[in-house]
Amino acid sequence: MATRLQVIGGGKMGEALLGGLVADGWATPGELHVVEPDEERRRVLIDAVVGISCGEAPVANIDTLVAVKPHVVADVCHELATLGVSRVLSIAAGVRTEAMEAVLGDDIPVVRVMPNTPALVGHGAAAVAGGRAATPTDLEWAMGILSAVGEVVVVEEALMDAVTGLSGSGPAYLFLLAEALIDAGEAEGLPRDIAVALTEQTLLGAATLLCRSDDPPATLRENVTSKGGTTAAGLAVFEAGGFRDLVRGVVAAATERSRELGDR
User: Fold this and answer.
1) CATH architecture of 170-262
2) Domain 5-157 carries which CATH code?
3) Torsion of CA 103, 151, 176, 161, to 10 degrees
4) pLDDT of residue 1
5) Can you give the pLDDT at residue 62?
6) What is the pTM of this model?
7) Does the pLDDT at position 112 exceed 80?
């Protein structure tokens, strides 16, 4: 069976994408090849996605997904340029398409994507941006891969830093909120296991309602905020503390850091 895609880097995100592609029917295990230098990690991947091929070296002239740390991308692209590659999809944070094109060659289609960790459970949010040689067909190919583990949008590459600041780093913001809610519930007398269970289900339920409702977040918030009620009392503390400005500052800081990493 011909290899349809090789994934360079068998970390958690690479593993999530491999599993998602098989579960989604995008590819069979036999059509996927993983390049992973660590022998123990290769064994884990082979057990996790039964039927995939796994090795230490890339395959020549094949569609490639680069899922390595940003500082390794240049070396990977040099090797791919030597072997020959049809097109490249990169999930390396902060590495611009022009940097990869400079090594691979201007005629090689390159697509950059910013995924996030909920892809590990099939609920990721990702944005893709095409390089100079990328066609609408290449973008459709990239979206097909990422949609196997969540939702995907297309943006101009100039917006990828903002995507990183919002959805790329966003899960960590919600995890921090979850930590704070659990601690607050415990401080009010709830047993910790109860505070954890209530927090997890509240965040899951609210996110599901937000996704399924036709109403915007402001309307959903207003629907549960009675004048003079408990929710109003809690939200008033958020507003007094400058919650909206704080969130803007958080996203802005992460966006700026993404720009700085891309300038290296």
Assistant:
1) Orthogonal Bundle (1.10)
2) 3.40.50.720
3) 40
4) 61
5) 93
6) 0.90
7) yes
